[in-house]
Amino acid sequence: MVIRKFFSRLSIGALLATAITVAANPAQAARLTTIDFDENVGVGDNPLYGGTKLDKLWSNYGFNLDSSLKKGGKSELWLFDSNCEGNTCSGDDPDLATGKGKNGNLKYKSPEQGKVLIIQEDNGKNDLEADDYANRSNRGTITFDFTDTDKKSGEKIGVLFNSISLLDFDDPGDPIFFAKFADGTDTSDKHNDGNDGFTYDGKWFQEIDANNNDGANRRDKKLDNYFEIIDGNENETYISEMKLLSTKWNGKQYVTKDNSLREYKFDFGDKRVTEFSITLPGSGAVTGFNYVRRPEAELKFAKRVPEPTSILGLVAVSGLVASSLKRKRQSSNAEIIQ
To answer: How far from chain centre, in Å, is Cα 96?
Structure first.
């Protein structure tokens, strides 16, 4: 299936249908959750908060964290403050800076990302300074374990995984994604690229015109920054779209290596993801991701869903949710589509 414009999973029609369905049955409200690692979950203002303390901080959002790199048996996951420039960045890592700034001769521009998730590099020098792991021969993996369970059986029910945003891919190679599903299968039955994972393969995608979706007259416009799957390649990858969010100051040249920011959108069909992992090509960070949880009535630790007030309100909320899929939010508390 070809995904048009900004929508990878929830089309306007689907959102409206969801709104009408939920109006008839409020208990079936769906939860769209966007994570940007700036949530107030005990991290506070300290971007260096790391290690095993991060593992379960987002458990109320339905997931736990883990990493392949350990220290003393504990996950080496830290938060890095990407709102920095040059020597103000911790760990001598200006390539993880976002917003508008300079990194040597590179003048980059992207939406500010605040705190981002990294695998901490144990360089034996200063364990109090956030510094991302950049070992190309022993690539690091970050795993998101989605913990929502069925109220009766206690088994994992998974989430509808929508997208993930990544920062700073100056190292050769693409990230490797891997997912396990609630039905017991995983992504090893699709295009494999080591560890039964799958990658973005540029030959399957084409740049599209984000405004008119016609791909024409691109030289007369700013960069479209969208790459969608070409007809006939739908069965080759779970990735439905890749979007570059970083340019040089003039807005007409991509930034694809240091300080690059990109978003990958996925189409897993009706399969619900219980575990999602990303293996970084070397240096890099996760800036955020989003997913839809199962209806509140089926969650083991359910909260009461507010009653909807009107169909019109539902349509308005649905439109806002669709728009929110375009960009990372500054505040990412879970939302209720009522």
So the answer is: 16
